[in-house]
Amino acid sequence: MSRLPFDPALGAGIEGRRHELFRLAAPVFRARGYRGTTIKALAHACHLSPAALYHYFPSKAAFATFLIDEKHLDWDSTHIDPDIDPLAQLRMTVDLVIDVLPAYLLAVDLAREVGRPLSQPQLARFFGQGEAIFGRVIAAAASGLGPEAARELARRVLAIIVAGPTTGLAADPASVRAAAIDVLRLHLIRAGVDADRFDAAMVPG
Prior knowledge:
This protein has ten helices and no strands. The radius of gyration is 18 Å and the shape is elongated. Mean pLDDT is 86; it is low at 1-6. It has one domain (8-201): Orthogonal Bundle (Tetracycline Repressor, domain 2). Helix content is 68%, strand content 0%. By secondary structure, the chain is an all-alpha fold.
């Protein structure tokens, strides 16, 4: 699988493994909440022994809040792979964000249960990270857009993706994806991106 601009889960090493384990444990956390979830149940969901799970997370609280405690990327630290078409990277970024957003929202809820609710500035920082990453990828895909215009377009796309889950009016992922792609198409074609090339690149991989 190609490396995305930001996807620790696709990387090698312990960070990638932690992302994988959180994904496996997410259904347990959702069903039982933080307080109702045991290390034994988490380990079972991850196909590990409790002792093996402690190799990756020192405590249940550390497991629950892993995603909000990890290192965050910004415009300058976002990787753009020179060997992958920027439009393809943009498509993968859209798909990845739609895919991983529920896990991040779960982590925010779990942090509240742990007694570490995120403040408005912290929540804004999370959104700002997505804005910077998306903006960086958009700018690479459309050289006719400057950084500020790319960030503004990133805000619009993120608002579409985040609105459903955070308001409780979640549309199905395919509809969310289509709406995000439509907005990107409109603005990137205006910025000089070939329409046929864009459409070909956005076909789900």
